[in-house]
Design goal:
The protein has about 260 residues and is of the alpha/beta class. The chain is built from nine helices and eleven strands. It has a single domain, classed as TIM Barrel (Alpha-Beta Barrel). Strands 1, 2, 3, 4, 5, 6, 7, 8 and 9 form a nine-stranded parallel sheet that branches. It has a two-stranded antiparallel ribbon with strand order 10-11. β1, α2 and β2 form a beta-alpha-beta unit. The N terminus is likely disordered.
């Protein structure tokens, strides 16, 4: 009888115990730095940033190949920053080009930037709105086992939509850090990305190797953990998002 009495007391105590606190909401952030390959001393500051920055290297820059090798040796993920209309130059994609020429330029760009895990678009407001070309690109990236990051330089982009259709590993940019090149504006954009990560669980940032951007990142990135942010690499972000669109980019996980 004493055993039954003790057991009933324990059960009664458990019924009045405080409920287990919910697990804290995860907030993930990833960072891509575009337009690399032009200036080695400047670009090496990107490699020194304290975390898994993704290096997006332009094929038509004087140090594209050399910097891709340095970034790879430093353990950074390298992606091809592919020029697309209205960008110009020998590698740039334009809507009027046939698929054969697009492939030729893509092949040449990949040769200039070794160790690439994927690509994102440089400019591309006209080009990423072309469904046929974007569908071809996503199929080509699938064949090459590379992922795609939609920089979303235009609201008319169909790139992520085409990637999603064939289940290509991909993700879309949420925040540009440095459209305005002042440290105050860049700091504000970084806080916008942090707030967005807390709100929706993750945020993808793109910045450039401007002195103001690098100064803010060098100062603020070490503080992310204290703000409840987990800085992850781009591959992990693709996994976290599971190829689904956020509310800003689509509905019910499907890109518009």
């Amino acid at each position: 009888m004493r055993f039954v009495f003790v057991l009933l007391c324990c059960l009664a105590g458990a019924a009045h115990a405080e409920p287990a606190s919910p697990k804290p909401h995860k907030a993930y952030l990833t960072l891509i730095i575009d337009d690399l390959g032009q200036n080695l001393p400047r670009d090496r500051r990107v490699l020194a940033l304290p975390g898994p920055v993704t290096t997006a290297i332009m094929p038509d820059t004087p140090h594209a190949t050399e910097f891709a090798r340095e970034a790879h040796r430093a353990g950074k993920i390298v992606i091809l920053h592919m020029p697309m209309d209205p960008a110009t130059g020998p590698y740039a994609w334009h809507p009027e080009l046939p698929i054969e020429e697009l492939q030729k330029r893509l092949d040449a760009a990949f040769k200039m930037v070794p160790y690439t895990a994927g690509i994102n678009n440089h400019m591309g407001s006209r080009m990423t709105a072309q469904p046929v070309a974007m569908a071809w690109l996503m199929g080509e990236l699938q064949r090459r086992h590379k992922f795609f990051v939609d920089s979303r330089t235009s609201a008319q982009t169909v790139a992520a939509q085409q990637a999603q259709k064939i289940d290509l590993a991909s993700v879309s940019r949420d925040v540009f850090l440095d459209d305005e090149r002042t440290e105050a504006a860049i700091s504000t954009q970084l806080q916008t990305a942090i707030s967005l990560a807390h709100k929706q669980g993750s945020a993808v940032m793109i910045g450039h190797p401007y002195p103001q951007t690098l100064a803010v990142l060098e100062r603020e990135l070490p503080k992310l953990k204290a703000q409840g942010i987990e800085w992850i690499d781009i591959r992990q972000m693709i996994s976290v998002r599971s190829n689904k669109a956020t509310a800003a980019h689509g509905k019910d996980g499907v890109y518009r």
